[in-house]
């Protein structure tokens, strides 16, 4: 190898390291808005929250899962350690911090414990193909199961997906569940944790893409089709749902399972929006997806764009109320103001690129439609006089009386003449 090749190799290695750090650096401005949305409550995965006192209790359970993992896999622990050690530099480069305080031995042990925990957790839960021989404090306590499921989807609580997949393949646990891969197990876990956010179609898409970690998996679940190409956004404002409603626009529940597929039909005056379910953990999901997109410099900001679009459409409780009535928003919070407040808060520090905004076409068409006075007049007439059969009858009766009066007047004039 000549000096030129050596320099080129060093540059490539450095570039990979820098890119990895950029992808996992959580902006301080986002953490300050709601630090709890990024902080694990029960279990730490990876080095960012490793060793925290409030999470130490689960370390013992990780060791129990490691014991079961080794018994099932029939692979020596030294083989797993060797595989992790070989990837140590690559693993460390995936994080913004260097973790110099973690020795090579500590780092490798941490990764082994976390990987074996994730694999066993998935095998036991989705579906239960592995029966534990030990007392399992997690699956005997539903509340703990829910807390762990949330913790595993936090951006600061991730292991690179490749190392989990490598250890799963090395373990040869496919012999216990031949139809399963790490991708399929992850899909089953995320489907159970986030339900409507994860579609059945994702398995076909995910196998063709490189998954960085579980948060990236969730983002890929809603990556929109290329049929709508992002373009420059002329203005960052658009009428709210209530204003659009007063302008005569009808709201239709979209048939797509992808909530990002919002469409506006200018001819019919119909805004089609796929259903969005808002539960108590919605903010955690959106904030971690938002943070990942903003950390990942080369990612298309689909979720960030969606947050902006929703914050424009539902700035007030009355806007949410309209979408709830149409079945577009399924509000598990039972508080319309809480939903509008959620998107207002998410929109703070939500950085988007106006030159590459996914919903720019929808915003542009809505603004054009709303600016035409004829639509507002027609809508006002319809909403004021044709809301129910009685008002329609009254209007028709009044019109008939006016017409008869005119006829009578004309006839009187003719008689006089």
TrEMBL record:
The organism's place on the tree of life at top rank: Eukaryota
Pfam family of the protein (one): DUF247
InterPro entries for the chain: DUF247_pln
Protein name as annotated: Uncharacterized protein
């Amino acid at each position: 190898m000549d000096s030129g090749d050596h320099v080129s190799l060093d540059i490539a290695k450095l570039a990979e390291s820098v890119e990895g750090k950029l992808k996992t650096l959580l902006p301080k401005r986002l953490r300050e808005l709601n630090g709890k949305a990024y902080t694990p409550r029960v279990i730490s995965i990876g080095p960012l929250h490793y060793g925290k006192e409030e999470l130490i209790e689960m370390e013992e359970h990780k060791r129990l899962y490691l014991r079961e993992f080794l018994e099932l896999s029939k692979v020596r622990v030294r083989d797993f350690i060797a595989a992790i050690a070989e990837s140590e530099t690559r693993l460390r480069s995936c994080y913004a911090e260097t973790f110099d305080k973690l020795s090579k031995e500590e780092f490798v042990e941490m990764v082994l414990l976390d990987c074996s925990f994730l694999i066993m957790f998935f095998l036991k839960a989705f579906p239960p193909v592995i029966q534990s021989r030990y007392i399992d404090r997690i699956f005997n306590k539903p509340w703990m199961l829910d807390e762990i499921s949330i913790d595993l989807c936090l951006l600061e609580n991730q292991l690179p997906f490749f190392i989990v997949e490598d250890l799963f393949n090395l373990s040869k646990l496919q012999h216990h569940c031949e139809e399963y891969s790490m991708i399929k197990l992850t899909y089953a876990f995320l489907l159970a944790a986030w339900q409507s956010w994860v579609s059945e179609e994702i398995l076909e898409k995910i196998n063709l893409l490189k998954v960085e970690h579980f948060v990236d998996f969730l983002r890929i679940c809603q990556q929109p089709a290329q049929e709508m190409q992002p373009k420059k956004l002329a203005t960052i404002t658009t009428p709210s749902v209530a204003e659009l409603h007063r302008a005569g626009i009808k709201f239709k529940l979209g048939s797509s399972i992808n909530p990002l597929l919002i469409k506006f039909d200018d001819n019919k005056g119909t805004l089609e929006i796929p259903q969005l379910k808002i539960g108590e953990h919605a903010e955690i999901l959106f904030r971690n997806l938002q943070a990942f997109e903003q950390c990942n410099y080369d990612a298309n900001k689909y979720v960030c764009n969606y947050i902006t679009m929703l914050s424009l459409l539902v700035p007030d409780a009355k806007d949410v109320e309209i979408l709830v009535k149409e079945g577009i928003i399924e509000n598990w919070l039972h508080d319309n103001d809480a939903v509008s407040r959620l998107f207002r808060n998410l929109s703070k520090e939500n950085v988007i690129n106006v030159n590459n905004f996914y919903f720019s076409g929808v915003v542009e068409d809505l603004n054009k439609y709303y600016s035409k006075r004829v639509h507002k007049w027609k809508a006002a007439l319809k909403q004021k006089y044709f809301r129910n059969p009685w008002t329609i009858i009254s209007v028709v009766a009044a019109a008939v009386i006016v017409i008869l009066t005119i006829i009578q007047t004309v006839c009187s004039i003719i008689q006089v003449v």
